């Protein structure tokens, strides 16, 4: 019998060596015998006796044997006499996953003309431009009925309102939220709701409705005046910062029932992540701030070049260190990109898919067509059904089979695939013309960012394990 190293990523955190085990998505802090066994194996296949002989001067034979068994149990090493762990094949029948989140695109129209917007830009899927610009109240009610029906036995559903600029169709938000609460009472379920807005249309009546219905709110905003007005402009070219900020401050002052977050789009000329975070978190008062690189073709003048990704990573890593230091003190930080990944690590997610699109999350277009997610709502190519007629499960199953991580050849040898699974489908569609293509243009970025989050996780696990319990729910 020969022993071989398993598939894992090693990293240093809190002064100790750790491994992230790819098949199981588990994190282990290594003791000295474990380090010695893994180092001794290296790229060699060794028999247990040969391995013991190499280490007997440092550890007892029993200690080596016990360590080997522990590492085999953790899949950090494996016996070549046993077959490698087998992942479920993509052809096995799929268990129906209840719908947990429905994103309702209540309008495709917006009162801003953001230069990078996928809704109005050339990157937007053509079919969506033929759909009605506003969802009707009837379609909204059908969407709510669809959501509760697809939720199955799940006791909880989440409804997200999206656009365009969501608040342009405030009448439908009001009626559909009232109907969703009625249906929740009738079915014995609970319904939670949220929305995304550019904040230009916030007024007292809307804030009152948000508070009354306990609506979660994410504001799309790119930073201070110079950063916001670079791309987020009205149709006349005027910047939106001075219009947005007083409304945001009023929202933050009054809506205390739920934390309000900011969502920032990063572009070639807007990569000062730490500066943006400081302004939005500490000067404006958002509870948390999250960042996402712009989704676009590489030829666009606002697309982030390779050197931009490198700079952005450095900014993320500095904020991650600040996040760690703040969390170790028992305080809230607010850089939401870190806890998003920490939750995946804590729960031991080994992703077959990068997100819930087409699984527990679906998006509804203004006409009631159901797509993979809100970004594909309105695309005939990515349509899975309608709220009136339900889901075409054979089409859904075919989509999931084709997009399984095991079918992405470029991902098979990547240690971070359990955390990434190839990346956003819409990003791949925009960049490469196919949702089945992994996002190779920022693979190295994802690996290095995942490594940073693992270091944060392992340090918190050692020094403040109670912090991580918030992700167990």
Outline the structure in words.
This protein has 16 helices and 15 strands. It is of the alpha/beta class and 473 residues long. The protein folds into two domains: 3-86, Outer Surface Protein A, domain 3, CATH 3.90.930; 101-381, Aldolase class I (TIM Barrel, Alpha-Beta Barrel). The strands form three sheets. The chain has a ten-stranded mixed β-sheet. The protein has a three-stranded antiparallel β-sheet with strand order 2-3-4, covered by helices on one side. Strand 3 (16-21) and strand 4 form a beta hairpin. The model is unreliable at 120-124 (pLDDT under 50).
Gyration radius, rounded: 24 Å
CATH class of the largest domain: Alpha Beta
Strand order of the largest sheet: 11-10-9-8-7-6-12-13-14-15
Task: Provide mean pLDDT, rounded.
Answer: 93
Silhouette? globular
Report the sheet with the most strands, covering strand number, pairing sense and barrel closure. Answer: 10 strands, mixed
Query: What portion of the residues fall into strands of 2 or more residues?
Result: 15-25%
The total count of strands amounts to 15
Number of helices, where a helix is a run of at least 4 consecutive DSSP H or I residues: 16
How widely separated are the two ends?
42 Å
Estimate percent helicity: 25-40%
Structural class: alpha/beta
């Amino acid at each position: 019998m020969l022993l071989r190293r398993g598939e894992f990523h090693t990293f240093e955190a809190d002064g100790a060596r750790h491994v992230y085990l790819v098949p199981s998505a588990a994190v282990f802090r290594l003791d000295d015998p474990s380090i010695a066994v893994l180092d001794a194996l290296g790229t060699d296949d060794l028999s247990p006796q040969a391995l013991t002989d190499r280490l007997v001067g440092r550890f007892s034979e029993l200690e080596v044997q016990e360590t080997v068994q522990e590492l085999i149990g953790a899949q950090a090493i494996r016996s070549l006499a046993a077959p490698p762990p087998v992942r479920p094949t993509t052809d096995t029948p799929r268990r129906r996953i209840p719908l947990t989140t429905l994103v309702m695109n209540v309008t495709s129209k917006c009162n801003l003309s953001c230069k990078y917007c996928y809704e109005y830009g050339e990157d937007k899927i053509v079919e969506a431009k033929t759909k009605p610009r506003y969802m009707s109240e009837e379609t909204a009610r059908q969407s709510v009925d669809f959501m509760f029906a697809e939720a199955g036995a799940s006791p909880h559903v989440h409804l997200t309102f999206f656009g365009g600029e969501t608040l342009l169709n405030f009448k439908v938000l009001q009626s559909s939220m009232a109907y969703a609460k009625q249906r929740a009472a009738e079915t014995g379920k609970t319904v939670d709701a949220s929305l995304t807005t550019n904040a230009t249309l916030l007024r007292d009546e809307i804030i009152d409705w948000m508070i009354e219905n306990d609506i979660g709110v994410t504001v799309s905003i790119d930073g201070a005046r110079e950063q916001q007005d670079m791309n987020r402009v009205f149709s006349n070219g005027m910047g939106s910062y001075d219009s947005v900020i007083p409304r945001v401050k009023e929202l933050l002052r009054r809506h205390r029932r739920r934390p309000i977050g900011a969502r920032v789009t990063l572009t070639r000329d807007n990569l000062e992540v730490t500066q943006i975070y400081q302004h939005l978190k500490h000067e404006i008062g958002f509870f948390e701030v999250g960042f996402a690189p712009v989704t676009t073709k590489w030829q666009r003048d606002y697309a982030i070049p390779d050197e931009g990704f490198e700079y952005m990573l450095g900014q993320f890593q500095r904020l991650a260190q600040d996040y760690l230091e703040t969390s170790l003190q028992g305080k809230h930080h607010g850089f939401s990109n870190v806890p998003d990944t920490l939750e995946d690590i804590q729960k031991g997610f080994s992703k077959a898919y990068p997100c819930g699109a087409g699984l527990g999350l679906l998006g509804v277009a203004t006409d009631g067509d159901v797509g993979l997610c809100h970004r594909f709502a309105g695309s005939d190519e990515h349509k899975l059904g309608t709220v009136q007629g339900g889901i075409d499960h054979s089409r859904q199953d075919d989509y999931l089979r084709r997009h399984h991580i095991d079918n992405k050849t470029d991902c098979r040898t990547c240690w971070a695939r359990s955390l990434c699974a190839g990346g956003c489908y819409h990003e791949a569609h925009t960049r490469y013309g196919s949702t089945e293509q992994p996002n190779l243009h920022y693979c190295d970025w994802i690996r290095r960012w995942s490594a940073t989050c693992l270091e944060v996780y392992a340090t918190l696990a050692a020094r403040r394990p109670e912090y991580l319990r918030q992700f167990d729910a």
